[in-house]
From TrEMBL, chain A:
Keywords: Cell membrane, Membrane, Transmembrane, Transmembrane helix. This is Amino acid/amide ABC transporter membrane protein 2 (HAAT family). The keyword Cell membrane applies. It comes from the Bacteria. It is found in: Cell membrane. GO terms for molecular function: branched-chain amino acid transmembrane transporter activity. It is a multi-pass membrane protein. The chain crosses the membrane at residues 12-32, 38-57, 64-83, 89-111, 156-175, 206-228, 240-267, 279-298. Its main location: membrane.
Automatic annotation (TrEMBL), chain B:
CDD domains: ABC_Mj1267_LivG_branched. PANTHER family: AMINO ACID ABC TRANSPORTER ATP-BINDING PROTEIN, CONSERVED COMPONENT OF ABC TRANSPORTER FOR NATURAL AMINO ACIDS-RELATED. This is Branched-chain amino acid transport system ATP-binding protein. Residues 4-256 form the ABC transporter domain. One of its GO terms (molecular function) is L-isoleucine transmembrane transporter activity. One of its GO terms (biological process) is D-alanine transmembrane transport. The keyword Transport applies. One of its GO terms (cellular component) is plasma membrane. It comes from Longicatena caecimuris. Keywords: ATP-binding, Nucleotide-binding, Transport. InterPro entries: AAA+_ATPase (IPR003593), ABC_AA/LPS_Transport (IPR051120), ABC_transporter-like_ATP-bd (IPR003439), BCA_ABC_TP_C (IPR032823), P-loop_NTPase (IPR027417). The keyword Transport applies. It holds the Pfam family BCA_ABC_TP_C.
């Protein structure tokens, strides 16, 4: 009987543990300066955001520009709960509350907008995320335009790492199930997919909600690391930032999104010393990379596709 | 009771009448052809039968378990679930998915595990996936595509893409299969093989088939009954011999023998 406990999954567990230990030892041994630690956490949060958006754009083919809106729901929910319970339990409760609210909002957004295609969907989701931002800006509980401050700093590297691993597992398991395949078929050809008995609206909504919930988790981690939340943080540009990571890494590639978040994070970090022209150089770097790799770093391939043949998973029936 | 009965079906696109007053019946186990010149409205009729277009007037009834079910205005995925599947004139495979995955997609409607089971990879997930893949491989073997199950659909040669499309439609377990120009772009050798394949499918799976085709050798050879469409109207119907000698059909479509 096949199950989770295969040799392959054991190897993955070891690889993940090794990567984690390297970073953890480096951080707790103070080998990484503080500024870099901020960068590492930011990269981690961006990875979770990009994975969620990749499920929506890369795998299901629905062009959404509203990811920052869902992130802000998660961030504010966590911050508000943390104000009452300033400990880890508070963070997890806040995260769950945020995910629940996000799921409901994503459903409400998805049902009318996912009938639209391409550019129209992008504009509609963009509009919705602006609605969320403006609502947050005008509510008392979210602190209005001034935002919330004095949020306890609870997000640590291990916590972010655990959530990255969870996100990867969730999306990986999803896209390799029948439900995930249905989502990919919507991207490939919506008419054929519908003709093959796929309820395309259902699967588009499903992918959208899962992606949005991951953004919500990322938002909660963000809130519990940076002390303050302002509505302006979650504007249009934040959505674009996440989109850039997804496109740059490759649509429909999980390892691509992870690598892209890391590469772009490092580019950002190294450019910090040229503060005046930083954004120009960042944009130029993206243009140069996209000219030479229009399909993104990985295309739709995964890192395992580059391993020697004999290590690759046999996809046949066994 | 016929498997499918179409009554007074009409489709208008604003002022243009693509199909008008179409009456048609398909019985169980029948192989029916639909022919006519380009632009006669054959594909429009297919699109109405499979739910892609909503008819302007008339009714489509499909018999399931001895009960007639009205198909007008039902979404395509629900029509497929009732037991009607189709292929497309311009091949619409899921190009960046493997041959096996293409077939698995059509089996999704019968999937018996939920999203949570998939995310947690509970034992049921493995059990169902293995069963699904086994069934899909059996189907691919019938269509001689089992060696290519790992290839991307877009890398298959043209003839095999056509075959895969039929295999994928069969994976949806239809009672009635619509084939939209299955022999388009095939050479005589491939067409002959396809003719055999279609007949084989009908006998093996006990289904009815309605096919649109321009290749008269295939249509006359294969179909038990033929409907002829011209300018959106049925101008003739009957067995191949009748159609061949029908004056209106010769005028509109077949042409005089020289």
């Amino acid at each position: 009987m096949k199950s989770q406990f295969t040799k392959r999954n054991l190897i993955w567990t070891i690889v993940v543990c090794v990567i984690f230990s390297i970073f953890q030892i480096a951080i707790s041994g103070r080998m990484i300066p503080n500024t870099y630690q901020v960068a590492i956490i930011t990269i981690g949060i961006n990875i979770i955001l990009a994975l969620g958006l990749n499920l929506i754009i890369g795998f299901t083919g629905q062009f959404s520009l509203g990811h920052a809106g869902f992130m802000s729901i998660g961030a504010y929910s966590a911050a508000i709960v943390l104000a009452k319970m300033p400990n880890l339990t508070g963070l997890f409760v806040g995260m769950l509350v945020g995910m629940a609210i996000t799921a409901v909002v994503a459903l409400i957004v998805a049902i009318p907008t996912l009938r639209l295609r391409g550019d129209y969907l992008a504009i509609a989701t963009l509009g919705f995320s602006e609605v969320i931002r403006i609502a947050i800006q005008n509510m008392e509980i979210t602190g209005g335009a001034a935002g919330l401050s004095n949020i306890p700093k609870l997000t640590t590297f291990p916590l972010v790492f655990v959530f990255i691993v969870i996100s990867v597992i969730v999306i990986h398991n999803f896209i390799r199930s029948s439900h995930g395949r249905a989502c990919i078929s919507v991207r490939e050809d919506e008419i054929a997919s519908e003709s093959m008995g796929i309820n395309t609206t259902k699967y588009k909504t499903l992918a959208f909600v899962i992606g949005a919930m991951l953004a919500s988790i990322a938002g909660a981690l963000y809130a519990a690391y940076f002390y303050v939340l302002k509505p302006t943080t979650f504007g249009f540009m934040k959505s674009i930032d996440i989109l850039v990571i997804v496109v740059f890494g490759g649509m429909g590639s999980l390892s691509g999104s992870i690598l892209a978040a890391i590469v772009l994070g490092i580019i950002n970090l190294t450019l910090q010393s040229y503060s005046e022209i930083r954004m120009i150089l960042y944009a130029l770097a993206i243009i140069v990379i996209m000219v030479y790799r229009p399909q993104g770093l990985f295309g739709s391939k995964e890192v395992t596709d580059f391993l020697p043949k004999k290590w690759q998973k046999k996809k046949e029936v066994d | 009771m016929p498997l499918l009965s179409v009554k007074k079906l009409t489709k208008n696109f604003d002022g243009l009448c693509a199909n008008s007053n179409i009456n048609m019946e398909i019985n169980e186990g029948e192989l029916v052809g639909l022919i006519g010149p380009n632009g006669a409205g054959k594909t429009t009729l297919f699109n109405m039968l499979t739910g892609v277009y909503v008819p302007s007037e008339g009714s489509i009834e499909f018999t399931k378990d001895d009960k007639p079910i009205k198909l007008n205005g039902i979404k395509p995925y629900k029509i497929t679930a009732l037991g009607l599947a189709r292929t497309f004139q311009n091949i619409r495979l899921f190009k960046d998915m493997t041959v096996l995955e293409n077939v698995l997609i059509a089996m999704n409607k019968d999937v018996d595990y939920g999203v949570i089971t998939a995310l947690l990879r509970l034992p049921k997930y493995y059990k169902s996936e293995i069963a699904m893949k086994k069934k899909a491989m059996e189907l691919l073997t019938i269509f001689h595509l089992e060696d290519k199950c790992e290839e991307l659909a877009c890398n298959l040669p043209y003839g095999e893409q056509r075959r895969l499309e039929i295999a994928r439609a069969m994976a949806a377990k239809p009672k009635l299969l619509f084939l939209d120009e299955p022999a388009a772009g095939m050479n005589p050798q491939e067409t002959a093989e396809l003719t055999e394949l279609i007949r084989f499918i009908r006998d093996e799976f006990h289904i009815s088939i309605l096919l649109i085709e321009h290749d008269m050798s295939l249509v006359m050879n294969l179909c038990e009954r033929i409907y002829v469409l011209d300018y959106g109207k049925i101008i003739a119907s009957g067995v191949p011999e009748e159609i061949k000698s029908n004056k209106r059909v010769i005028e509109a479509y077949l042409g005089e023998e020289v």
